[in-house]
Write a structure and sequence with these properties.
single chain
């Protein structure tokens, strides 16, 4: 494992290694541990697909963008302009 990562493929390998290491150090039953490790390996294969990777990236960013957009729209909303009338005496 290197200190720098060369790309998304290496990121997933490092992530999987750390996850599997944590699972082995935990006190989970062996059967449950193997199930979780297999799920992580399946996720790694799924993550190799660029469409899935882009979709996951948007799922992370989209909710934050929507909240910020709604907040800015509420703050910057135009106030109704009141027409000034002059009283004739």
């Amino acid at each position: 494992m290197s200190a720098t990562m060369d790309g998304p493929a290496e990121f997933m390998e490092v992530y999987q290694e750390k996850y599997i290491e944590q699972m082995r150090e935990s006190d989970l039953p062996a059967e449950e541990m193997e199930t979780k490790i297999q799920e992580m390996k399946d996720f790694g294969e799924l993550y190799k697909n660029p469409v899935v990777k882009i979709g996951m990236s948007y799922m992370e960013i989209l909710p934050v963008g929507l909240v910020i957009s709604r907040l800015c729209a509420a703050i910057l909303r135009r106030k109704p302009q009141v027409e000034e009338t002059t009283a004739i005496n």
